[in-house]
Design brief:
Blueprint (H helix, E strand, L loop, with lengths): L4 E5 L11 H19 L3 E8 L4 H9 L4 H18 L6 E4 L3 H16 L3 E11 L4 E3 L4 E4 L2 E4 L7 E10 L5 H10 L4 E2 L1 H12 L5 E2 L1 E2 L7 E2 L2 E6 L1 H6 L1 H4 L9 H6 L4 E5 L3 H14 L8 E4 L2 E3 L2 E2 L10 H8 L1 H11 L6 E2 L2 H31 L2 E3 L6 H14 L2 H6 L3 H22 L9 H22 L4 H10 L21 E3 L13
Parallel strand pairs: 1-2, 1-14, 2-3, 9-15, 14-15, 16-18
Antiparallel strand pairs: 4-5, 4-8, 6-7, 8-10, 11-13, 12-13, 16-17, 19-20
Helix pairs in contact: 2-3, 5-6, 11-12, 12-13, 13-16, 13-17, 14-16, 16-17, 17-18
Bound molecules: 5'-O-[(L-methionyl)-sulphamoyl]adenosine.
The site of 5'-O-[(L-methionyl)-sulphamoyl]adenosine has 21 residues, from helix 1, helix 7 and strand 14.
Amino acid sequence: MKDKNFFITTPIYYPSGHPHMGHAYSSIIADVFARFKRNDGFNVFFLTGTDEHGLKIQKSAEKSNLDPLTYCNNISKVFKDLSLQLNLSIDDFIRTTEERHKNSVNDLWNRLVKSGDIYLSKYKGWYSVSDEAYYNEDEIIDKNGKKISSFSGSAVEWVEEESYFFKLSAWEKKLLNFYEKNEKFIFPLSRRNEVINFVKNGLKDLSVSRTSFTWGIKVPNNNHHVIYVWLDALTNYLSALNYPDINNKLYKDFWPASLHVIGKDILRFHAIYWPAFLLAANIEPPKRVFGHGWILSGDEKMSKSRGNILNPIEIIDDYGIDEMRYYLMKEVSHGSDGNISIQNLKNCINSDLANNYGNLCQRVFSFIKNNCNNTVNKKGDYSQNDKKIISETNNLSKNLRMLIDNQNLNNYIKSVIGISFLTNKYINDEEPWKLKKSNINKMNNILHLSLVQIAKISILLNPIMPKSTSKVLDALNINLKDRNYSFLDGNKIIPDKIKISALNILFKKIDK
Ligand code: MSP
């Protein structure tokens, strides 16, 4: 049964400012996978939360004249509310300031000390507060007299202080071995190559504690030090499963995690440090890390510090949550960066939703309401044209599970919207409205097949647009428990005789 369990996570967010589209993007991708797997009969645990320790948060709190915990309580709530507004189907929301998390970090730390992977020394080098990351000398460049990281573009500062170190250098070969044995650990493959090259260039031991500020989890037995925020934050994935109680049901069912969804900027932490910590602590690493690209605004990463933020809440208010979810998932291609704009959002809503999927549902439902008293009855065999669209739909559906398992949402959506396009064309060609008098059986069969197509498309789009597709599935009177992908294995999706209910307009066309 364990392979029917699916543990999926988003990165836990720094509550250091207001959420933007990049955050929303990361969460929605994970939500789509979580929902797809649930619809496909998996037992899913979907986790998100907030990453509340470290210098970045301490500084943000100081700026707001609040003590760090009060500050975090406020902003963590903003992110929790966001998860509702984005309609994330989360099973838990973890905060790193919670006791359950502190216990788990302490335990992991003690394990690393016990295994001999942590030692005390002195750190001298570059640190970026905004990335909460250490950088090597060869990753630093000079820009307008300021030192920045060539990797992220963030400002760095020179740090010299006593620090505990994790013996990352000792894990170089073992990590390379691990990547080789687990070919699908890092997705997409371009990111895997990036990580392997970085590790092959040599790993230095990693500073895992700080003494120059206090906002963090104290190092067990040495409270001058706080634990490095990334060692702290990554452990949230274990804390939510009640680690270190490894005999409890959540941990037993869900560890190792099936999929960490993250942005490419935090790949190093998830694909190098995290498996190294876990291997050293003798805990099985996660099965997959998927590094998606960035949401860009005018060729730059959307971020608070660049001031080019699109506010997801405003977009939801103006255009609707399903519309925004669909646009983001469709527009940004598999693992690459994607430029988003309001104009493209409008075009996408009009072409794919209002004119294609929405129009398909509307025209079929209103025709059946006006001409068939809401009831359609399939009788006898399919025509050649019916068989043709069934086989074309089967072709487009063949790889859908695989596309989801490869996190290739882009091609998934293209295939599904392709089915919708085909179905609109099928109706145009078959002209059921002309058959009302001459061939009522044939008309019924065409309408029935159109409803089958609508049901399939709606279930396939359900993880992306849960609200609108549920309206359609409700109107088709399909039970909740039957909204699954068993039709991909040849099962019937609606009965031969079907009564439908009223369906209101799903997507309004938007003026440009
Ligand atoms: N707190 C860390 C994650 C710790 S996980 C153990 C963090 N937080 S974050 O709030 O800065 O970012 C959260 C997620 O949003 C990351 O996956 C990051 O890549 C993603 N994005 C932030 N800006 C983004 C874009 N402009 N585009 C797409 N995603 C980006 O990192």
